[in-house]
What does this fold into?
Amino acid sequence: MPTVSSSGPLSDIPAGLDFKHLAESLPNALWVVQGNVILYANPAAALLNGLNGPEEMTDAPWSTFVHPEFQQPLRLALQSVLKHERNSPPTELRLLRPDEMVVHGEALFSLAMYQDQPVVIVVIRDISHQKRVEERIRHQANYDSLTGLPNRALFLDRLSHELVRTRRQKSHLALMFIDLDRFKWVNDTLGHAAGDALLREASNRLQDCVRKSDTVARLGGDEFTIILPDMSKGPQAERVTRKILDSLAEPFLLEGQEAFISGSIGITIYPDDADEQQDLLKNADSAMYRAKGDGRNTYRFYTPDMHAEAMERMAIEKDLHRALERKEMILHFQPILDVHSLELVGAESFLRWNHPERGNVPPDVFIAIAEEIGLTPAINEWVLNQACLHAKRWREKGMGENFFITVNLSCTRCRDLLTKENLQRILTGQGLPASGLGLEITENIVLEEETRSIQRLNQIKELGVRLWLDDFGTGYSSLSLLKRLPIDGVKVDRTFIPYVTRDMETAVLVEAIMSLARSLNREVIAEGVESEEQLEFLIEHGCQMAQGYHFAKPMPEKEFEAWWANQRT
It folds into this structure.
């Protein structure tokens, strides 16, 4: 090793101390550099670079051992020390190794003299672990832990940069919002592990549908977004969107079985639709909700009318969160009559929302929103409690010990209520025998998880609650379901009854439904009866019960009681 004299920190070394022994004992790498050559390297330096010994570094250019991207900063640091004859601030390096392992170091510099010529002593501390921790923290801050996609923070940063570039180049940019239809059903029926697997696979499919220059990000839940630089509204954007929809429509293999979902996509274009980032985000979100409202598994480009629609929806969401608390929800009841005696036997309950400013908000508006924002379970439990409360009260008022009220439970989020324990808790709480409650279920609540659903329905049947298959005749598998389900009867859909006296095919269909129900010992309730002729047809073909405007419309509590009192006189 050359003998050096230092004008830096090494000048304080006590006289007589063996500098070579000191250098070779250091845990940190040490180079003595003159010009572009390493005059000396200690064993720790060779180890850090993955070499057999320091002799492999001696008299070699230092650039041989430093990654090209970090050579310029090191060169400037060495020049600074030599020029100013003082220490240079720490410099980060990435070292080159034969095994290509990524090793980062932090270099400190001191000026020294060797044979009356200046040299630089470089001490390199291994900071690889620190860099890995920093990278992990950075990744966690910017990437979704489940899918590995950019998260909301990184998405917004990239969108901001892309907008700057697009403005400078006077180009276009497309922004997509994608919501996975039926994802909640997968989570509710197959479990969260299956839901996570679906999200990972969906993210892979989305990335396969776009260019490498595009950004696919996960905003949270089942919502994704895609930034498409240099793309305007037209065939190219539509081709990408159609490719995404087709990809998402392919079956997902989850928990050993196939699951099918779809996507709803909203698209907005810069600068056609908006100039600012926040406006583009709102536009894409509005267009996505329009796609969901138009039947899902489709896409919509933003149009100006969507903004007002989105603001209206936001206002409804806000008010809906407090509707139960403010006692704005009420039930209406439509009588169910024995078709032979025309005596009252039961009633179907209908949920209504009387908003203090909007008036009566249509169920087809707020029910869909309630399900999307997770309010359905709370609303349905309230409906069940109110139905049981009214059924008990009206039984005691003389409507008969067999009087019942039915509740429609057609949404997929109602499954949690369809347990023996939950229903028993509600019945006990309201003091109503199980026979006083009827549940109207639809095919979709059964078909998506048939084995488990039938098991639950059997338990409910054992409890004594009445079970009805609603909208019968409209689904493709109703006839086969009728045999398998533990139900009391079926409700013939209201779309059929008005035509039984003037359309032969409809009459034959309804007659076949009632004949099949009778043969399987199932009762029949006909919905939507509007005339005496329709009632006579139903009686002639064996229908037991009916409801419809021919008898009465759905009515609030007091009006229902007044109608019943009038029927008795």
Observations:
- The chain is about 45% helix and 25% strand.
- Residues 6-17 have pLDDT under 50 and may be disordered.
- Residues 323-568 form a domain with the TIM Barrel fold (CATH 3.20.20.450).
- The longest strand covers residues 103-114.
